[in-house]
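Researcher: Structure prediction, please.
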Amino acid sequence: MRIVIADAHRVFAEALTSLLKMAGHEIVGCATELDAAAGIIKREQVDACVMDLGLPGTGHLSGIARVVARAPRTAFVVLAESADAESLASVVSAGVRGVALKSDDFVEILRVLTGATSSRAANRGARGAVLSLAAQTGLGPRNRSRSRSRQGDERAQFLTQREREALARLVQGDSTTAIARSMGVRVSTARSHVDAVLTKLGAHSRLEAVAYAVRERLVEVDAPASVDGGESDRSQAAGD
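Model: Predicted structure follows.
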């Protein structure tokens, strides 16, 4: 599946890109604004677009409806912070084919994405959309965040202060060398901190640890100005 990711948070976009690639999908491009995503879709053959509902340009549903209408061959899936009935009805009426929460597990997001693409072909013009389990039950952001927070705290409580610093640097996209420099330690020591973080969080890679930290709000994440998918940023986030 050829996919465009539209999200203003570089770290989240990078993590989602990596996970989708591992699932066998091709990421055509990333964008930080709705119009930029529309431009990529216009130039490329795109099967699906995964977009953050808080993305610049999505504030007015007319904007989403306009982009959806201009790309009839593309299935649009929204990742929302919350999933109340009113917002669900609005985005579905705008033509969105799938809705999941940003706090959903990757497997659930992938299920919605795959289902939205399949249902789009089978139910062209239908008003229904594929929803994640959390979206189906109308789980509000307050209850969802509390549940996620408890789960995140259970793992994070075992991190030392220095390991938390290393995790925060990973989320910012720093390499092992940059982490060592900022923490004033040797590269080998920084690598040990990172390895401890992965072990305690139950993550199999740095990107998985970053995705977990962002999803569970273990660290504060700032939204950068752009997501261009540059090799330098990816290489730093992925390893040494």
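Model: DSSP finds twelve helices and six strands in the chain.
Researcher: Thanks, that helps.
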